[in-house]
């Protein structure tokens, strides 16, 4: 499968498109754009999982495995490493099936090439989910080739030999031969395919599912040897920073570079053209200062005099926008899901309760701000970038600089954090454009932290209004949820007012409660900034709202939160997401990936049991629970907090239970959950980007505060829940984030009686 | 011209005295182990040791380092404490994306050089200037305790 439509064909100007057609991909980078080619999607049978992504999957060992004559095995990783450990984990999968010794394995990073490697969009928590089986088959195929080669040398049947621990053994004769010696002949052996590939039995796994703390890049990372986006060094290279329009949609009207050019080290000042909304992944435009070192470029930029144009977004103001969102949430909106008759349920209710929850924009703020290096030499453009989507980056760069794809290469460095930001190659295109001006010299573009905070593809801002009704026996009879938030579609198409299927399917229309009358509505709201996907995306505000609301309902009813939640879930059953109008289902086959109430219940039971739910706590302390299903993984969290006089918050313990199906690399599952816990605490306590006059009001870590070590819970316990039956793989990178903020807010309520309906918490406890 | 000794080696830097040490070492001398994170001493990604003191090199001018000894992450394994910190980081599996971890290792080394057996409060206090966006803080605490125990054994 190749990319069949470019962004130029993307002409989604109205809402008449059936979501069913729109959601072919998984709503990210190339997938979203490809998905817009709906006529094509109708023509082919709908595919799910890895095969549903642009480029699909590849399992050819000649693409991913190279055995060297010295016995080392080089395994290519085509997914980007941003802290989730995928370079280690996917290589372990290959090594296990290959019967390779991990000590002799190396990992090489693929450049961006979808035709060669298959899909490379490292987002959506799907690297292991989509690539576990292809990489197993790849390793197993390579193992069969080694066995075939050995059997050929010994002139025995291949069935008589067996690969084991980096060598092939012929048990009958006691002969054995190492992988290195077999490398050359194995390479000439035909690649097996289909049923000829024999996978190992799980009980024979050496690395898959084992407890181990491995990180192929670990020592490089902590000794300064690892290469991130700004760590490339070339003779005579240049360094650039860019002054970008302070308001989205503004352009350069005029500029004076005379003072900038006087700064020692500044070589050239270059205008970069922006693209009006929808600007997709294109640069914002502005004025670049190119110098012999980063410091000179920064000083040169400070000396620029720039006149920016007015923008249609000059009036973007977070205070008034919030009012507009909350007003929209008070009124009926586009119906997304409608079960029974909510109006009648509300009219006949014994009691009703409603609440609105607000969450502001947040910035990804990866510790590595965007940075990329480009070199145009002899008509070939080579790029080194921390990219979550190198194949999309390559395509956009090639189009922008006017080179054929084969005259470009995008090498992927380590990512100093991604969280969704580095799926968008605007910063890489800047480097490519500047490199065009200096043939033969590498140019590195460095974003400062201020650039990063001001010009992020922000997490959306949202108002979630919930209303529920109860009969005289306390049974829930009605559920009305209105979600108002500017959509990610705004970067792809003009005049977008409503959320996409992939945003709705994040804990909104797929709320799996056993309530007879339910309605979900999405009132419209315009988009004024670049909204992008942030680790777990719309699941964050949904979990915050729904899980806080249920805690509030339990409190009103005088019931235990956990029991109340389980009652809302109803009997153990599997729900086809399509029956909840969720045709997206995180891109997965709804038959293989139903919403499983039993698995939700399991993570609730496990986390509450481990946390000691219900035990007596000292005054000022409280425990809060939240549960969320996202990226086809089930996560529950219990946080135990203490609020001191004056409002100081101490988070004593965090207990999380996760059911992600088969656990491939348990230590990495835990570390992703630990990190998600801390990130969730951060966005709950201090995360906010606000706008006034169209400009972001925060600029760096002093006013956009992210968690520091004292805010981390004294203890985080992660419990991996065995699903107890055969199920498909779930995601890991993102699903830990959503339940953390509501668990924290529910714990604060338990400790103090103070209900948080607006994030961040900041000084609400004072 | 400013003379500095970097990881035991003498260098001459022909740069303006106000250039932050971070950029001089990364862009002029080409040692990229030290990272840029914020530029205003908020995140600690750029932590180096100046005469054994942990400093934020993004906000320390080259002139302040003239004639002095600078240690960066590239030289920390010459220090027995630094080596134990690195080993503990590996054993505990601290690093996720790794970008902040050079700065974390530099700060943790400085901590253990001053307080050989820190408690959690010492750690939280000393390490609060180093941000990790991946949220590896609990493992950082564990690794520091582990390194402290190993150093005591020796």
Strands of chain A, count: 28
Percent of residues in beta strands of chain A: 15-25%
Helicity range of chain B: 40-55%
CATH architecture of the largest domain in chain B: Orthogonal Bundle
Number of domains of chain A: 4
User: What's the pLDDT, averaged over the residues of chain A?
Assistant: 94
Going by CATH, the homologous superfamily of the largest domain in chain B would be [2Fe-2S]-binding domain
List its traits.
heterodimer, A: alpha+beta, 7-stranded mixed sheet, 5-stranded mixed sheet, disordered N terminus, B: 154 residues, alpha+beta, Ubiquitin-like (UB roll), DNA polymerase, domain 1, 6 helices, 5 strands, globular
Notes on the structure:
The complex is a heterodimer of chains A (766) and B (154). Chain A has a seven-stranded mixed beta sheet with strand order 9-10-7-17-14-15-16. In chain A, strands 12-20-19-18-13 form a five-stranded mixed beta sheet, with helices on both faces. In chain A, strands 23-24-25-28 form a four-stranded mixed beta sheet. Chain A has 766 residues and is of the alpha+beta class. Chain A is globular, with a radius of gyration of 27 Å. The relative contact order of chain A is 0.11. In chain A, strand 23 and strand 24 form a beta hairpin. Residues 1-43 of chain A have low confidence and may be disordered. Chain A has four domains: 7-46, no CATH class; 61-215, Aldehyde oxidase/xanthine dehydrogenase, molybdopterin binding domain (Aldehyde Oxidoreductase, domain 4), CATH 3.30.365.10; 238-311 and 370-446, Aldehyde Oxidoreductase, domain 4 (2-Layer Sandwich); 318-363 and 457-752, Aldehyde Oxidoreductase, domain 4 (2-Layer Sandwich), CATH 3.30.365. In chain A, helix 14 packs parallel to helix 15. Chain B is built from six helices and five strands, in the order ββαββαβαααα. With 154 residues, chain B is an alpha+beta fold. Chain B has helices at residues 21-28, 62-65, 80-92, 101-114, 120-127, 137-153; strands spanning 2-6, 9-13, 47-50, 53-56, 69-71. Helices cover 42% and strands 14% of the residues of chain B. A five-stranded mixed beta sheet of chain B has the order 2-1-5-3-4, sandwiched between helices. Chain B has two domains: 2-75, Beta-grasp domain (Ubiquitin-like (UB roll), Roll); 79-153, [2Fe-2S]-binding domain (DNA polymerase, domain 1, Orthogonal Bundle). The model of chain B has no long low-confidence stretch (mean pLDDT 98). In chain B, strand 3 (47-50) and strand 4 form a beta hairpin. Chains A and B meet through helix 9 and helix 21 of A and helix 1, helix 3, helix 4, helix 5 and helix 6 of B.
